[in-house]
Amino acid sequence: MSVAVRVIPCLDVAAGRVVKGVNFVDLRDAGDPVEMARIYDAEGADELTFLDITASSDERETTYDVVRRTAETVFIPLTVGGGIRSVQDVDRLLRAGADKVGVNTAALARPELIDEIAAEFGSQVLVLSVDARRVRGDATQSGFEVTTHGGRTGTGKDAVGWICEAIGRGVGEILLNSMDADGTRAGYDLPMIASARAVSSVPLVASGGAGRLTDFAPAVVAGADAVLAASVFHFGQLSIDAVKRALREAGMRIR
Length: 255
Fold this sequence. Notes:
Elements: E1 6-14, E2 17-22, E3 25-31, H1 33-43, E4 48-52, H2 64-73, E5 78-81, H3 87-96, E6 100-103, H4 105-109, H5 112-121, E7 126-134, E8 144-148, E9 153-158, H6 159-169, E10 173-178, H7 190-199, E11 204-207, H8 216-222, E12 226-229, H9 231-234, H10 240-249
Parallel strand pairs: 1-4, 1-12, 4-5, 5-6, 6-7, 7-10, 10-11, 11-12
Antiparallel strand pairs: 1-2, 2-3, 7-8, 8-9
Helix pairs in contact: 1-2
């Protein structure tokens, strides 16, 4: 494997606190995002992803203050998503200390947003966050549908087709979150990862379903360049170091 696998904790933030639930509902408090970011940095996380999970549904801006304080605390790349609707939003986040920004709902509503952000700041700062779920029959060609608003709203849009389009428009990374697996700790959705990998020429981050140390290597084998998890790290079931050890023992190169 030529590229080193990244291990990324995800801070799902609502009202300035880290939260975690199952399938994005029944959220429970997991702590202060700035303090948790500091701990993960010290533990050897390769990057951090900060998602304001209610920004789109509540129609409010990402919490710039929390982003700023988090960025001042950690010295690893920080990706921030949630409620980003314009080039100006991206500019403010980058100035607040984000290294990359994730778009989702607004890009689905107006795909040209991807072109505009990539033209202004370059593809390397732009992550497409895809919250996908399985659909029955031939509802989509790939069998996976894009959802919005924390997985609460189906779009009817084929997830793999959307990934193709977004890469063509200038996205530099894909964050693929399985809404079916999210918070279940039953393992990553390997067929979904493989389907995305088959069409993706940019790095692919797998999210949703991590529960055991043995879950991470199969996601990489399926095509993920990075593995992201939240609740197993937040509540102490697994450590960053243990995940890296498991990946190394599976023959993978890590950061």
